[in-house]
Every structure is written in structure tokens, then in C-alpha cells.
Write a structure and sequence with these properties.
This protein folds into four domains: 49-61 and 288-378, conserved putative lor/sdh protein from methanococcus maripaludis s2 fold; 65-73 and 201-286, Elongation Factor Tu (Ef-tu), domain 3; 85-105 and 174-195, no CATH class; 109-170. Helices cover 26% and strands 37% of the residues. The protein has four helices and 20 strands. Strands 1-20-16-15-19-2 form a six-stranded mixed beta sheet. Strand 17 (341-346) and strand 18 form a beta hairpin. The longest helix has 42 residues, at 2-43. The radius of gyration is 43 Å and the shape is elongated. This is Efflux RND transporter periplasmic adaptor subunit. It comes from Microbulbifer bruguierae. Pfam families: Beta-barrel_RND_2 (PF25954), BSH_RND (PF25917).
């Protein structure tokens, strides 16, 4: 019985060893195959990518102070009524351009007009009484008191007439200045009260932009300095103006001060209330290294460019000593990825603060196809534009 049990245990042990050997061989084969596949993929030579290039250039840029501003009309009001009454007539259309003093609307003034007739009758009577008493005074029949009383009565009637005519004129609503009307807010027959808005009126040419700068920049700006403005509502167009007012005080809450610039707006494209990016031109110039914006590969972990160099020099300066698999035809140019620190953007160009040197060639297209130390083919037959103030092609 013991002998049979020993034989059974030996057989089980040999079976377990056999299973381990079989399964170990299978897993080892799979691991070896995967390792060889990874080695093949890592050393596989990729075809070179076609790119366009541009040199890193040094330029002189005028220093600018950037801010966000809000457009404001030179004159802008809601034209309101000064009297109470029914709207009798409307003489304008919404959005119309009007001159100063143009009649916009009239309120009914029947009782006031009738009162004018009463006062005119009193005026005629007062004039006759004054003439008669003046004649009697010259003859010595009337006293000086009677003459003064007749004069006062006549003056009082004339004053009442002037007040009544002013009351009637308040029922004629006119434009206080030349400008563009907004949307009509009253209708014929509507009963309005003093202060009710009739229509908005904006003087759009020229136009103001109000913006704030940090107190650290107070000594760097002065009246007459030029500004450039862009508005998201009017893409692709720049507007120029000059600083016309600087608030003498600093806001203690946020340590900024208010400035106002005036811009010409003959086409009335800029409208009150628009947000705008304002750049104040400071006299100081600085030297900057710039590349086309399309050369920058933006990423959360850092911005980078691909420096295009001859294959031998690029490999020699590589920091990691990877072995490059031989290929049937070695590329003449290689792209080396380099992280950079970017600065100000102007048009199609962007400032590079750190990471490149003047004269180096950077890839400006096909960045998604590039890999570090990968081969490239340069094709600059159609180079990208490098414009400080680009405008869209609407043709």
C-alpha cells in the first residue's frame, strides 16, 4: 500500500513538472516574440516627413503695454421727454443719422396752445392800458403809481407768454447733437411722462476707448502717445489712435489708473460697449528673436519647436545617445525637438525668449508628423507668410 502511494506521488510530481515546462515554454515564447517586435518597431526606419522651414530672425520691436478696454461714444444719451402728454408725431426712423437740432417727435399741446390765445388777448389789453395811462400821465391827469402799475401788468403778461411758449417748446423733442439714432422706444398715441426715453443717440465719430494700466506704468505713458486697437467683433482689422486723457489718481482697490484714447471712426465700425485689446506704444525698442507662430508646438507640459539641421550635426549634438538604425538612404536633414519659452505675439510672429539662436531653421508645417531626430525633407516652394499685421484674404 505504501509502495503504491509513493508511485502515485512520483507520477503527480512528474506531471506537474511537465505542465510547468510546457506553460513556461509558451509564456517564454510569447515574451520573446513581443520583445523582438518592440525591438523591430523601435529600430524601424520611418520615411522622412516633408516640412517647410523658416529662420529664427532678430527684430526690433517697440515696447507695448497691453490692456483690455471698452469703447465709449464721444456723446451718447437716451433722448427723453421733458413734458407729459400724448405722442402726436414721430419724424425719425430707427438707426437714422440726424443732425443737431433735428426734430424727432412732438407731443400734443392743445391746452397749452389755447392758453396762448388767452395770454395774447391779455397782452393786447395791457398794451392799450399802458398807452392810455402814459398819455394821461403826460397831461398830468394820471399819477406815476398808475403808470407803474400799467407797466407791471404789461410786463407780467409778456412773462406769462414766454413761459407758455417755453412749455410748448418742451413738447417738441429735438436731437441735442449730431449722431446715429438707436431703436425707437415710443409709438404714436402713447402717453409719456417726463424722463421717458424716446430713442438713444450716439456720436460715433470719433470714438473713445477707456482702459486701465498698472500703477507701475504710470510714468511710462503720457497724453499724445499712440495706441493700437483690435476688437474681436471686427477680426483682421487694426485701429489707431492717441491717448487724450489720463486720470490723475490711482484706484486703491486694484492699483490701476484709467486712461482714455480717441480713435477716428469714419466708417462707424467701432460701437460703444465693444471690448477691445489695446496696445500702448512706448518709445523704447527692444531686440527680440521671432519665429512664425505655426512653428510652435503648443502643449500643456511646455511649448516646443523642431530645429531642422543637417543629419550629421543634429546627431552629434543629441543629448541622448540612442543607436539609430541604419537605413537604405540616410536623410540629409533631421528635426530635433527643443522646448522653448515664448513671449509676445504680433500678427503671424511670436517672440522666443529662451531655447533658440538667431539663424537656426525651424519647421513651420507638418509638426504632427515629426518625431525627435526624425528625418525630414525641406520644401520651401510655398513658404508661409510672416506678417506683423495679417489681414484675411476675402477674395
Amino acid at each position: 500500500m505504501a509502495l503504491a502511494r509513493q508511485l502515485f506521488n512520483r507520477r503527480m510530481m512528474w506531471m506537474l513538472l511537465g505542465c510547468l515546462v510546457v506553460f513556461g515554454g509558451i509564456f517564454g515564447f510569447k515574451f520573446f516574440g513581443r520583445y523582438m517586435m518592440n525591438q523591430f518597431m523601435d529600430n524601424m526606419s520611418l520615411p522622412p516627413a516633408t516640412v517647410t522651414t523658416a529662420p529664427v530672425e532678430q527684430q526690433r520691436w517697440q515696447t507695448r503695454l497691453s490692456a483690455v478696454g471698452s469703447m465709449r461714444a464721444i456723446n451718447g444719451v437716451n433722448v427723453t421727454t421733458q413734458a407729459q402728454g400724448e405722442v402726436k408725431a414721430i419724424y425719425f426712423e430707427s438707426g437714422q443719422f440726424v443732425d443737431k437740432g433735428a426734430l424727432l417727435a412732438e407731443l400734443s399741446a392743445l391746452p397749452e396752445t389755447a392758453q396762448i390765445e388767452v395770454l395774447e388777448a391779455e397782452r393786447r389789453l395791457a398794451e392799450r392800458d399802458f398807452k392810455r395811462i402814459s398819455a394821461l400821465y403826460k397831461k398830468g391827469v394820471a399819477t406815476l403809481r398808475e403808470l407803474d402799475q400799467a407797466q407791471a401788468t404789461q410786463d407780467q403778461v409778456l412773462a406769462n407768454l414766454a413761459v407758455q411758449r417755453a412749455t410748448i417748446s418742451e413738447r417738441s423733442i429735438t436731437a441735442p447733437f449730431s449722431g446715429q439714432l438707436g431703436i425707437r422706444q415710443v409709438d404714436l398715441g402713447q402717453n409719456v411722462a417726463p424722463g421717458d426715453p424716446v430713442v438713444s443717440l450716439q456720436q460715433l465719430h470719433p470714438i473713445y476707448v477707456d482702459f486701465s494700466l498698472s500703477e507701475q506704468d504710470f510714468s511710462r505713458v503720457k497724453e499724445g502717445q499712440g495706441v493700437e486697437l483690435t476688437a474681436a467683433a471686427i477680426p483682421g482689422q487694426n485701429f489707431s489712435g492717441r491717448i487724450t486723457a489720463i486720470d490723475p489718481s490711482i484706484d486703491p482697490a486694484n492699483r490701476t489708473f484709467l486712461l482714455q484714447a480717441t480713435l477716428q471712426n469714419p466708417e462707424r465700425k467701432l460701437r460703444p460697449g465693444m471690448f477691445a485689446d489695446v496696445a500702448v506704444k512706448v518709445e523704447k525698442f527692444r531686440s527680440v528673436l521671432v519665429v512664425p507662430r505655426t512653428a510652435i508646438s503648443f502643449a500643456p507640459y511646455g511649448n516646443a519647436v523642431f530645429i531642422v539641421r543637417p543629419a550629421k550635426s543634429a546627431l552629434a549634438e543629441s543629448t541622448n545617445n540612442k543607436a539609430v538604425a541604419p537605413s537604405a538612404q540616410a536623410p540629409q536633414w533631421i528635426a530635433v525637438k527643443r522646448f522653448v519659452k515664448t513671449g509676445e505675439e504680433r500678427g503671424d510672429l511670436i517672440e522666443i525668449i529662451e531655447g533658440v539662436r538667431e539663424g537656426e531653421q525651424v519647421a513651420t508645417s507638418g509638426l504632427l508628423k515629426l518625431r525627435n531626430e526624425g528625418g525630414v525633407i525641406i520644401n520651401n516652394t510655398s513658404p508661409l507668410p510672416e506678417n506683423l499685421n495679417p489681414t484675411p484674404d476675402n477674395s
